[in-house]
Write a structure and sequence with these properties.
It contains 20 helices and no strands. It is mostly helical.
Length: about 425
């Protein structure tokens, strides 16, 4: 292999951050052209494709660079601690039973839908089973469950836990983007017919009005700029939490190693992985901290900093991909489509049983599938005051993402 044009990681780091800033700036632009572009092309996908192009053109080398290793080792655990530590679980519980039950039905639909969809496609397409086993498609599909339940951080954590290859992950990202974006468009379109849908669901819309009034009466302290002490506290929380997770993870994984063969019988051998315990402990620590005063650091930009870590990690993953080896896979697309249909069906049946309005279906589904970026937008279509409902449910999805992905991975392994 020829020597890449750029071998200095300091230069590569600067290029990636410049590209990331350009993606952020254009994705948040008010220009109609950019808004239309990002309607069809997720910013997350660009964060993967641009570095992949640099690697494919031999401008940089993902294999030779240490940025990926640094990002997975240091940034991902810190991001998990920071993202979950800002969850206001008490406020989420105050949304009411219908909102939470509908949301959880969507999560369960994703977890159970994965192995069911995989089994259906293996039955429908001759040879797909052998192809799926040979290429370990389940390792890629399980990252979709992380994305659809917990967002990018959970998706990347599951990629590392199960060892999904970069070429497979590239295909998975495209599948994920196409299917999830199409469903988001359907949800937005359905908002125009919410009265008819509520009629079919026999919905009791009084719960929406109660939530709306509660939010309108709720006043938060205004955000303030972070100072030096604030920033050092946020970094100490993230990286200190990651350090604690690494210490405990080493002890747990070492003590579980003698039982690896026994655990493998039940598909639980990933629990002997040091990195798996780093992810679980980082997430759990963040959830615990969310019940303390440290949760108020969200007012200072904790989530933004954690999200920046995640997006940079995505860029370093993209830098390891050769686009010349990227190919489509109709079977994987079919799995994702059936999987999404199961998620939708479970939510609609649940909503009809408990008489939940379409609003809770749309926002609950988007909190799972889209996350904090799109759930508030979908909620605000119904009423601007309802946008915080999307935020709260999306935060809950962050909390559940890694755990739900691990259950999904275990179930998918049982299908072979």
């Amino acid at each position: 292999m020829n020597e890449p044009l750029i071998t200095n990681d300091a230069i590569t780091l600067g290029i990636l951050l410049v590209l990331l800033t350009l993606i952020f700036r254009t994705s948040q632009s008010a220009h109609p052209g950019w808004q239309k572009f990002y309607t069809y092309v997720p910013a997350l996908l660009l964060c993967y494709i641009f570095p992949a192009a640099l690697n494919s053109l031999n401008i940089v080398s993902g294999e030779q660079s240490v940025l990926y290793k640094v990002s997975t080792t240091y940034l991902l655990p810190a991001a998990l601690v920071l993202l979950t530590s800002t969850a206001d679980l008490r406020a989420i519980l105050r949304l009411g039973n219908k909102a939470l039950v509908t949301f959880m039905a969507g999560t369960i639909g994703i977890i159970l839908g994965a192995p069911i969809a995989l089994l259906i496609v293996m039955w429908l397409l001759p040879g797909f089973r052998e192809q799926a086993i040979a290429n370990e498609y389940w390792k890629g599909l399980v990252t979709i469950s992380g994305s659809w339940i917990g967002g990018s951080s959970s998706q990347l954590a599951l990629k590392e836990i199960y060892g999904c290859s970069e070429p497979l992950f590239a295909i998975i990202l495209v599948v994920d983007a196409v299917v999830s974006t199409t469903w988001t468009a359907c949800l937005i379109y359905g908002a125009a017919y919410k009265d008819k849908i509520d009629g079919w669901l026999r919905a009791d819309t009084r719960s929406i009005e109660e939530v709306k009034e509660r939010i309108l009466q709720f006043k938060e302290e205004p955000d303030r700029p972070a100072n030096l002490l604030d920033l050092s506290t946020i970094l100490a929380l993230g990286f200190g939490g990651g350090a604690l997770a690494y210490g405990l993870a080493y002890w747990l994984s070492t003590n579980l190693q003698p039982y690896k063969a026994s655990l493998a019988t039940y598909g639980l051998d990933p629990f002997t992985s040091n990195f798996l315990w780093v992810v679980i402990l980082s997430t759990s620590l963040g959830i615990g901290l969310s019940f303390t005063r440290l949760r108020k650091l969200e007012k200072l930009g904790t989530t933004d900093l954690a999200t920046l870590f995640v997006y940079f990690l995505i860029m370093t993953i993209g830098m390891r991909l050769d686009l010349s080896n990227l190919g489509g896979n109709p079977g994987l697309f079919l799995v994702a489509v059936i999987w999404m249909l199961i998620h939708i069906l479970v939510m609609l049946i649940t909503a009809r049983i408990i008489r939940a309005p379409y609003f809770f279906v749309a926002v609950g589904s988007q909190a799972n599938i889209g996350g904090v970026s799109t759930a508030p937008a979908v909620a605000s279509i119904f009423h601007p005051a309802l946008a915080p409902v999307g935020v709260l449910l999306a935060v809950l999805s962050h909390v559940l993402g890694t755990y739900g992905g691990l259950i999904t991975g275990w179930l998918m392994r049982l299908t072979f």
